């Protein structure tokens, strides 16, 4: 044996049997082993073990010994169930009841001994009935450090021998700082691999590491054994190479063979590996040359050797500790190379340069007749005979003759065909001779035949016999008898054909295109056709909950078919059997599959909102669902519900393809909420979140502003303006107006009145001689409108207007009175007079003569005689 890191081999044990025990190993140390045989002449070359071995305890998969899996007890009695448990290291046992973790109480508890787990129930009652499950798991393999530096350590471990009945889903790594530290998590995420690097270590400090496995049931194993103390420091170990002694001599191989150079390597840090040939580095991508390396071994393989593959090979290792090189010389034996050229060719004529030969096949010296069963296939480079459903009559000596204008060439082959039926005895007898007596060996399809229950090989000095009893389909093939002595080797082949039902079809039996109602099956033809052509296939199906098979196709010619009329949600197994003229073959079964659509319902639509609301209709909008469930959205279904209602009512009779829909025929004043479903091939999704309640009413807007206000009067402190009503009241009656004003040289507006119902208003409190402009806003229940256009500028002063008579049509008529009649006290007319300041009437005249007195009272005038 050879400890890791050492170049010396030490004899570990000597034994006369093919088994030995090595003692005195160091825990967790890695060793290489090799075995040599010896006799009185000396010791043979050693045969190394393929991989290094680590000295550590073996693990035993946890197991239970359950003699009874059903327990009955009367209500009120105690129940105690003790189940023996085996495992190494001692497994961690957990109990569950009906799939849930078993909760221990004062009445129900679980205890464990070194060899068993015990469930105790006091005063059992009906609630204690159910299915109890026991799970056991032991630790993972002891982790070992494979990389150690001053700041990190990389450890690796092996998977647990037993997974507790549930697949291992990850690992947890813990570390402990020596000497007084406690175990703490070194990994805060689930570790999938069996290797992990712990970082943030303090240089020079000593640590221990251990691993805990977790399975899919969420159960944690017992911690593994620790790695032992590891110091966080860079290790430096010069590279070392260990090779078998045969590589010290020249390695001689024949052309076409494959040779391998392998070596055990070591070094810290891990050395860089380089293979050289004749002083040049070998590229791993070089054709026919393959380099495989692990942390302890490197192998160079050269396939299909040719002459140039011989030469001087060097394995070179290097790291910070130094460089190590080992040479290996290889010699390839081959035919000589081509003579020095060029090769001059003269006198060549086209019609005589490699003419294609005529091919003639004969059987037992007679021309071979081609039939539908026997065919000769000849190309420019080859010729072969294809015989379908061969029989004993096809045995014999076959001869091929090639003839062209240059000459002819012949070759012979003897074909021995033995045909037996399944269950019969195959017997091959042969006479042998040779001096010295040859060594006899039988092979089938290239593999040596061993005598066993159905196979007998018997030989004498002059004969050898192979007997195969109760032939089965797998006994078909080519049997070769080989005789060998120092004078040479001779072989003869016998082709055996066992007629039987076909074997199973080539798997796997693929189930594709699976939906809730149908699927497609695909398989390959049987590799063993039983000596006859496959006529058809029988296809069957079975629900996993049933034992009986149902026929799907009784005469399927193809190797693919469609299965329909499946029941949604049921689990099925399918099988296919080939049929030839000898019967129905073995079945090829599929894995269990559940008849479900490969898609699901879509997610619910989002962001449902209402727009364009009137007293009779409103528009509902939404966004596409975040997932279509694997099938494209075919439409949407919209439902509504009144505020006081309990039942949702469908809005659309046909699916809606757009992301909006108009809901009509609403009741004015009612409040509605809406929700939306998405529909795909799997059906309707869950409903969306309903939108907020929306009242069916005509929309209201701000009114339009009034027209430009007009100034109708002014004084030194007041200005009176008037305006017209707005053209649009916003859908709600105008409830009033507000008036604002500002000085023409200011930018700030002042509210003259916040609300007035009239279309005329007098702004008071103005500064005499100051120029103002005015705007008016309309007001409805929504609010004030935009301001009207500004009025013309107006100075706050007394207004001066030229007097104007406002004579009515009645005043313009001629007044007829009786002559000499008095007009005293008679009101002849009333006439309005406009003007500012207030107009006073001075004098009435008649026919340019004064003779009437006039009295003016405000703007009303009465006429009377003097």
UniProtKB/TrEMBL annotation:
GO terms for cellular component: M band. GO terms for molecular function: structural constituent of muscle. Signal peptide: none annotated. One of its GO terms (biological process) is sarcomere organization. Residues 46-149, 239-329, 411-493 form the Ig-like domain. Residues 1-58, 139-235, 504-598, 604-699, 705-798 form the Fibronectin type-III domain. It comes from Astyanax mexicanus. Keywords: Immunoglobulin domain, Repeat. This is Titin. InterPro entries: FN3_dom, FN3_sf, Ig-like_dom, Ig-like_dom_sf, Ig-like_fold, Ig_I-set, Ig_sub, Ig_sub2.
């Amino acid at each position: 044996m050879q400890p890791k890191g050492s170049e010396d081999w030490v004899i570990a044990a000597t034994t006369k049997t093919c088994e030995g025990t090595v003692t005195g190993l160091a825990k967790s140390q890695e060793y290489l082993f090799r075995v040599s045989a010896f006799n009185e002449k000396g010791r043979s070359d050693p045969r190394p073990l393929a991989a290094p071995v680590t000295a550590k305890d073996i693990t035993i998969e946890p197991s239970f010994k359950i003699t009874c899996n059903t327990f009955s007890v009367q209500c009120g009695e105690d129940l105690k169930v003790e189940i023996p448990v085996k495992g190494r290291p001692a497994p961690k046992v957990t109990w569950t009841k009906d799939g849930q973790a078993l909760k221990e109480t004062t009445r129900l508890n679980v205890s464990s001994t070194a060899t068993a787990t015990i469930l105790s129930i006091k005063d059992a009652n009906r609630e204690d009935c159910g299915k109890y499950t026991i799970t056991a798991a032991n630790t993972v393999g002891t982790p070992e450090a494979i990389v150690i530096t001053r700041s990190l350590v990389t450890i690796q471990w092996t998977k647990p021998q037993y997974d507790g009945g549930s697949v291992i889903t990850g690992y947890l790594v813990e570390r402990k700082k020596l000497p007084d530290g406690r175990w703490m998590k070194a990994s805060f995420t689930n570790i999938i691999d069996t290797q992990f690097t712990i970082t943030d270590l303090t240089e020079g400090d000593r640590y221990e590491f251990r691993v805990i496995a977790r399975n899919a049931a969420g159960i944690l194993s017992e911690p593994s054994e620790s790695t032992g103390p590891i110091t966080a420091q860079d290790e430096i170990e010069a590279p070392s190479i260990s090779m078998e002694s045969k590589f010290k001599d020249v390695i001689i191989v024949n052309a076409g063979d494959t040779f391998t150079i392998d070596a055990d390597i070591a070094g810290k840090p891990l050395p860089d590996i380089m293979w050289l040939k004749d002083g040049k580095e070998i590229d791993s991508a070089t054709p026919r040359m393959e380099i495989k390396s692990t942390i302890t071994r490197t192998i160079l393989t050269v396939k299909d050797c040719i002459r140039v593959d011989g030469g001087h090979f060097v394995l070179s290792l290097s790291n910070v500790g130094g460089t190590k090189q080992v040479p290996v010389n290889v010699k390839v034996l081959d035919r000589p190379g081509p003579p020095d050229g060029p090769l001059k060719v003269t006198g060549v004529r086209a019609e005589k340069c490699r003419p294609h030969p005529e091919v003639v096949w004969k059987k037992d010296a007679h021309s071979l007749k081609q039939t539908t069963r026997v065919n000769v296939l000849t190309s420019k480079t080859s010729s072969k005979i294809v015989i379908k459903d061969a029989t004993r009559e096809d045995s014999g000596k076959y001869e091929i003759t090639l003839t062209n204008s240059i000459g002819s060439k012949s070759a012979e082959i003897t074909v021995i065909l033995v045909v037996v039926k399944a269950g019969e005895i195959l017997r091959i007898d042969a006479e042998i001779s040779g001096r010295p007596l040859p060594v006899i060996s039988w092979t089938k399809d290239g593999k040596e035949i061993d005598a066993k229950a159905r196979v007998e090989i018997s030989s004498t000095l002059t004969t050898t016999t192979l007997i195969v009893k109760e032939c089965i389909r797998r006994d078909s093939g080519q049997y070769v008898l080989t005789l060998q002595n120092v004078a040479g080797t001779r072989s003869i082949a016998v082709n055996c054909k066992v007629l039987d039902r076909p074997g199973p079809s080539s798997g796997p039996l693929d189930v594709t295109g699976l939906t809730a109602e149908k699927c497609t099956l695909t398989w390959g033809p049987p590799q063993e056709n039983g000596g006859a052509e496959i006529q058809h296939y029988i296809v069957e199906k079975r629900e996993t909950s049933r034992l009986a098979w149902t026929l799907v196709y009784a005469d399927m010619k193809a190797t693919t078919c469609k299965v329909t009329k499946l029941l949604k949600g049921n689990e099925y197994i399918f099988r296919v059997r080939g049929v030839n003229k000898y019967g129905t073959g073995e079945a090829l079964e599929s894995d269990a599959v559940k008849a479900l659509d490969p898609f699901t319902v879509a997610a619910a639509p989002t962001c449902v909102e209402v727009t364009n609301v009137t007293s009779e209709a409103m528009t509902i909008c939404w966004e596409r669902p975040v997932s279509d469930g694997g099938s494209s959205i075919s439409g949407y279904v919209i439902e509504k519900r009144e505020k006081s209602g309990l039942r949702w009512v469908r809005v659309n009779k046909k699916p809606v393809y757009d992301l909006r829909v108009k809901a009509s025929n609403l009741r004015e004043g009612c409040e509605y909420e809406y929700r939306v479903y998405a529909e795909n091939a799997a059906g309707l999704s869950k409903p969306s979140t309903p939108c907020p309640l929306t009242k069916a009413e005509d929309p209201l807007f701000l009114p339009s502003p009034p027209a430009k206000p007009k100034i109708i009067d002014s004084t030194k402190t007041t200005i009176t303006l008037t305006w017209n009503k707005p053209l649009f009241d916003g859908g709600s009656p105008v409830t009033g107006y507000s008036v604002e004003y500002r000085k023409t040289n200011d930018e700030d507006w002042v509210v003259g009145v916040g609300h007035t119902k009239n279309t005329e208003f007098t702004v008071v409190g103005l500064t005499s001689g100051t120029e103002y402009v005015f705007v008016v806003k309309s007001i409805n229940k929504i609010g004030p409108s935009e301001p009207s256009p500004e009025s013309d500028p107006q100075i706050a002063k007394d207004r001066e207007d030229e007097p104007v008579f406002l004579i009515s049509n009645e005043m313009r008529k001629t007044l007829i009175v009786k002559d000499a009649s008095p007009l005293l006290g008679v009101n002849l007319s009333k006439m309005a007079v406009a003007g500012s300041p207030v107009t006073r009437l001075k004098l009435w005249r008649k026919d340019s003569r004064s003779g009437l007195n006039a009295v003016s009272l405000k703007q009303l005038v009465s006429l009377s005689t003097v």
